[in-house]
């Protein structure tokens, strides 16, 4: 009879069938290129893009569309940038701007995060404030400045006010989206294994929401950086060099090469911070298995 | 050794105690004309150490029933008693592993939530993983495993609850036949070793005949217990044995009768 020939469930032949099947199913799943290969693959297209932009710029310069003092060639801007890098002034400006950016963003994270957590916990608040938060996001940050200046005069507080108003909605939205899209099945599984109340938030909801939270932080930073630049152009504080202020001063001096050189610095900082956020976002998603590692 | 364990399990089953007892349980979703009667006066008993398979066509409220027993939802009317007031462990068709934790992290989470000290926890996790033959994959993440391995990890995690009642909601529905057959052996072995009371929901009647001590048929819309049958085939069983096939055929006939009732 068939039953007699069957291996009993807990003998070793059953176990080896399992391990054999596991090995077959996982075969060929892991393939990774080396770090060097990956970073080169990520870098060269960017270098090509920069080269194309510089070439186009040079061609426009050669076409004689604008006078040289209005639109200088890349080489002149490069020389100006090199000169600036060797001055204390530029580094002071960078330090001031970054300090403002980081402080403003940190305040926005605290306020936006707190609003996100409170609103996500209550249905009524969710319905009322949730849509208002999205509405706030559509408000161009520069439109806040007249009010900010009336409230805080030409001070750093006015700049912080606009940074926080610009970034906090994105951060709160990230938290809300994250909490909203926690798969219900994970909540059920979490509750079944004993995660209730605060523990459900700590062990299930917060980690499940993390990818959306990181995306919200990234967007929040982009908004704070924009608000900060707008703020520094509008709100110049005497004897305190900052990148935006510097742009405005150099424009006043008709120093095109200087303006573009400062813009290059702003661009590099923006790209650098964005790359850090992208990296964090990728790491989280890779770890969460949302991203294919292939 | 297996035979011995089976006979103790059988002895336990002959008692009058119930691991899970549902009495006249009804569940209605929504209100008024839009309400859905998911379960209607369902009475069902699972004895300690008994393996009960619930079968039914779609919409019979099988999953609702398990949610109620697991305490994730409350019945509209009726009582559910779980022996000793334990929280039954629940497994789904989807492994529902937490993607941000490793396999060991997932299996260890119920222990961590019970505040088991770390050294003890690590030993338990190793033991649970070896029960499901995943020791080597402790540090992998769920997305790196195959479907069958994920389901075994989920099983290990629910076993970590140390509940004497295991609820399974079509746990192998998404797996290929070979993996499923192997997991039947695994579940049977673990059920015998740990003397669990299992309430196993499936729409696969062969699976029910392969695993169950008893098969209970639920009707659809509303879910009611309409028929039940003991599976008197000695273990170990094979899913392709004639005895199992004969019982499966009988259950299929009853199930079709139930479904036809809705066509009229």
Summarize the structure.
The complex is a heterodimer of chains A (294) and B (264). Chain A is an all-alpha fold and 294 residues long. Chain A has 12 helices and no strands.
Could you explain how this protein is built, in words?
- The complex is a heterodimer of chains A (294) and B (264).
- Chain A is mostly helical.
- Chain A has one domain (75-287): MetI-like fold.
- Chain A is built from 12 helices and no strands.
- Chain A has helices spanning 2-5, 12-26, 35-63, 74-85, 88-121, 123-137, 145-152, 156-180, 184-192, 198-234, 243-252, 256-287.
- The radius of gyration of chain A is 27 Å and the shape is flat.
- Residues 1-10 of chain A have low confidence and may be disordered.
- Chain B is an alpha/beta fold and 264 residues long.
- Helix content of chain B is 40%, strand content 22%.
- Chain B has 2 domains: 2-88 and 164-263, P-loop containing nucleotide triphosphate hydrolases (Rossmann fold); 98-162, no CATH class.
- Chain B is built from 8 helices and 9 strands.
- In chain B, helix 6 (177-194) links the parallel strand 6 and strand 7.
- In chain B, the strands form 2 sheets. A 6-stranded mixed β-sheet of chain B has the order 5-6-7-3-8-9, with helices on both faces.
- Chain B has helices at residues 2-13, 62-70, 103-113, 118-131, 147-159, 177-194, 205-211, 242-263; strands at 20-29, 36-46, 51-55, 77-82, 89-91, 165-169, 197-202, 214-218, 225-230.
- The longest helix of chain B is centred in the last third of the chain and has 22 residues, at 242-263.
- In chain B, helix 3 crosses helix 4, helix 4 (118-131) packs across helix 5 and helix 7 packs across helix 8 (242-263).
- The interface between A and B is large, with 38 and 46 residues.
